[in-house]
Design a protein that fits this description.
By secondary structure, the chain is an alpha+beta fold. Among the domains are: about 100 residues, no CATH class; about 140 residues, Rossmann fold, CATH 3.40.50.150. Helices cover about 25% and strands about 25% of the residues. It contains eleven helices and 20 strands. The strands form four sheets. A ten-stranded mixed sheet has the order 8-7-6-9-10-11-12-18-19-20. Strands 13-17-16-15-14 form a five-stranded antiparallel sheet, covered by helices on one side. β19 and β20 form a beta hairpin. The termini are far apart. Keywords: Cytoplasm, Methyltransferase, S-adenosyl-L-methionine, Transferase.
């Protein structure tokens, strides 16, 4: 059976619409018109098992008939699409196996991309800065909706830039695709009506705020060194020039940007948490906060740094570790309407969570927080009363695992 890209495209858009990630409008029309197999004619699929070393991938190619069915599923399946291995040139590659190294560029999960593009409220004639070109999906949608004359796409990787410029051109689009540091934007083409950053940062880049036009909107994921509880910064410049912003708790975010520190729970640490008795175990009538209480968890991640959640622990457990100091928390139901709370290490993570939970409830259980951006200075998020507020880290700040 011959793979049908048009049918796959329609099905992908229908699934995005059904999940609530995409509504009717120009973004939906653009995604229905965008042949991803032209924009991304090659993509990697992982062949090695989780944890297997060295990792192994195959590069699939649309021009190879034997690859088309699998590649079509990758391109229109809604997941991340892996486009570059170990910083290689993206144009002129031969299909086939790769081993060791790492994936250095990818196209983001489509539900995240679609929802952000929709929230940008793109309109014809707008000037758009796409920061983090990747495969060029955001740039292609912006060109389709706004017209390519006003679209600028920026990426620090020359190979990614060259490939995106070529493939956007094959779609008939001629935006400015430029190599440079995304956090600095491109002042020579500013101001921009819309700015979308496709990687996470520790604070909103001041240079991008400065390049926002009156009436403009900037979207960027803001996270700590932990990947567990991200936020989306929504920044607008009022017609008179004043900056207004909020930090909204979200479930998923872009990957961390270049040079941003990330902390993880190693396999050895997870085995310790699963197998050790811990320092103390107490019985609690208080259930752990729900995953849907994202505003609470966002505050936890900022107010008590260095924590990482193990989302693979199962729906009936809460497992959090602090790799910097070796502390951990394990919460399980004990079968009697109570919870067994086990902690280990110098930090009492359960007490930290309960501290934030009490302040979060007193603040009305917010899911987003006002974000104050001082020109060239501090950025502060939190409730207006100040009981649940925190300073956003400087770009060079490192997580030391200690509470703030």
């Amino acid at each position: 059976m011959t793979p049908d890209p048009v049918a796959a495209r329609v099905e992908m858009v229908a699934e995005l619409a059904g999940s609530g990630a995409l509504g009717r409008g120009p973004v939906r029309d653009a995604l229905l018109a965008l042949p991803r197999e032209v924009l991304i004619p090659q993509a990697y699929v992982r062949r090695s098992a989780p944890g297997e070393q060295p990792p192994r991938w195959d590069l699939l190619d649309w021009t190879a008939p034997g690859d088309r069915e699998e590649l079509l599923a990758v391109l229109y399946g809604g997941g991340s699409v892996l486009i570059q291995h170990d910083g290689e040139p993206v144009l002129g590659r031969t299909r086939g196996a790769r081993s060791a190294g790492s994936i250095t560029s990818m196209s983001t999960v489509m539900s995240v991309t679609a929802s952000l593009l929709q929230e940008l409220e793109l309109r014809p004639g707008q000037r758009v800065l796409d920061v983090g070109t990747g495969a060029g999906v955001t740039a292609a949608v912006a060109c389709h909706v706004c017209g390519d004359a006003g679209v600028v796409s920026l990426d620090r990787d020359r190979h990614v830039v060259d490939a995106a410029r070529t493939r956007l051109g094959e779609l008939g689009f001629r935006p400015a695709v430029v190599c440079g540091a995304g956090e600095q934007g491109l002042p020579s083409s500013a101001p921009y009506d819309r700015i979308l950053v496709s990687f996470a940062v520790p604070r909103v880049p001041d240079a991008l705020v400065d390049q926002l036009a009156p009436g403009g909107r900037l979207l960027v994921h803001v996270t700590t060194a932990s990947p567990s509880w991200p936020g989306l910064a929504i920044v607008t410049r009022e017609p008179e020039g004043r900056i207004a912003a909020e930090l909204r708790a979200v479930e998923f975010a872009h990957r961390a940007g270049h040079g941003m520190e990330r902390i993880v729970l190693s396999r050895a640490f997870l085995e310790r948490i699963a197998g050790e008795p811990g320092r103390t175990t107490r019985r609690s009538r208080t259930a752990p906060p729900a995953d849907t209480a994202r505003g609470l968890w966002l505050a936890v991640g900022h107010l008590y740094g260095g924590l990482v959640r193990d989302f693979g622990a199962g729906p009936d457990q809460l497992v959090i570790g602090a790799p910097g100091c070796g502390s951990w928390l394990r919460v399980r139901p004990d079968g009697h309407g109570r919870w067994a709370v086990t902690t280990s290490g110098p930090r009492d993570i359960w007490d930290e969570i309960q501290d934030v939970a009490a302040r979060w409830r007193a603040a009305g259980e917010p899911g987003s927080y006002p974000l104050v951006i001082d020109p060239g200075g501090a950025q502060r998020a939190g409730t207006r009363c100040g009981r649940l507020s925190w300073q956003l880290a400087e770009p060079s700040a490192r997580a030391d695992g200690s509470p703030r």
